[in-house]
Amino acid sequence: xxxxxxxxxxxxxxxxxxxxxxxxxxxxxxxxxxxxxxxxxxxxxxxxxxxxxxxxxxxxxxxxxxxxxxxxxxxxxxxxxxxxxxxxxxxxxxxxxxxxxxxxxxxxxxxxxxxxxxxxxxxxxxxxxxxxxxxxxxxxxxxxxxxxxxxxxxxxxxxxxxxxxxxxxxxxxxxxxxxxxxxxxxxxxxxxxxxxxxxxxxxxxxxxxxxxxxxxxxxxxxxxxxxxxxxxxxxxxxxxxxxxxxxxxxxxxxxxxxxxxxxxxxxxxxxxxxxxxxxxxxxxxxxxxxxxxxxxxxxxxxxxxxxxxxxxxxxxxxxxxxxxxxxxxxxxxxxxxxxxxxxxxxxxxxxxxxxxxxxxxxxxxxxxxxxxxxxxxxxxxxxxxxxxxxxxxxxxxxxxxxxxxxxxxxxxxxxxxxxxxxxxxxxxxxxxxxxxxxxxxxxxxxxxxxxxxxxxxxxxxxxxxxxxxxxxxxxxxxxxxxxxxxxxxxxxxxxxxxxxxxxxxxxxxxxxxxxxxxxxxxxxxxxxxxxxxxxxxxxxxxx
Length: 543
Known about the structure:
By secondary structure, this protein is mainly beta. 3% of the residues lie in helices and 47% in strands. The two termini are 20 Å apart.
């Protein structure tokens, strides 16, 4: 009997190791009556600096130059605005990335179609070009630089370098100006600036067809890893020589360069449908990339079957680990039947597990708990993967409308994150604020902090068993009796499967609450009750 009790106790502890629940500790919405879009966030001591785009000229926005500006906000540790500022000109500008420097200055990497106001000099008027702005901690411009050519560019990513400079990455349509090599159509294009804004070098990946750059990084050996999503429908001239899995659809291509921009290797990844890379990260034994895929062949297995109204496959988020030579170690296509965005945020935890933040339109397959009212709206989907690529935990954040995130995730610890995304509907479910222009009308920045409320539960496991449940074991139904004087408006009930998957979530309306168990497989489950301050747990057996 003692051995049985001890085994039962260990099983319960294994529940707690996999069962997590992240609660929002604070949140705020920022914006005006038009569309305002958050892109990135960085932590500065106890404050946060965020950047994106605003098209509003009211609400939290005090001044605009016209037709959309790059918008930067500094907030404190609980989401209160310390200062905000618009950057740009009269024809449309925005930022996609913030790159901190070692001396409390910041690069804002973006795009500009303007030639006036904050744009000090535009050598290529009439086109959208990369716009890199260096600011101090109070938001004052130190210098700005337009780079590109006369046919235009699109920006997507960027990063800092060890010498204090900055790299911008996206794609170009130009065969002149600062673009030293152009293969045709549009090419993935990377350019390096010094800390003073001088051009030092540029590098192009492409064919004579459509090639876009969405992710690049500085590697630990001083080199560079560049992702190009290539459509090899043309004559396949250029510098992409790896063999694609399809022609006419996007292929995910990686280039590894040394510190002198010499090519060390290149690889094609994907299957017979659209595939592309949007995030890169180095780990101790290789690299991990975040991608999207509509394939279920070639390098891809496990795609969740789903098609849109045109008959095209809905993409999964595709996570792939490769070694330092580009060979696949493992891969996992995660999501559901309505489609997911690529994982632009991949974070390595202390135990080498991975935390991902993805936008999901699904509520099946690997996804549960999506709050969206329609298949055209999304939630922010947090997914934890083991170091070998298996899903450990997942949770959705959002309201009834469209909620999403681009690069805006900060890890404060393995179990504590700040997310800068956007929403178009609230208050609803997790969204506690209302978009300035009203629901369904525009998108505002939605910024919130989450913490895992199960931390410390193991140590307090015995004292937390204060829930009355009956019958236990249960067959067709389970009744939960809440403690006396519990505030029902703050309470929350959750039931988890033996693998730690959230099966049931509800808010009680009275002292007694019923859960149907007729269709639940026999086994051991974990019931949790949030009383507004802490979690209480109880083990439940279903026969």
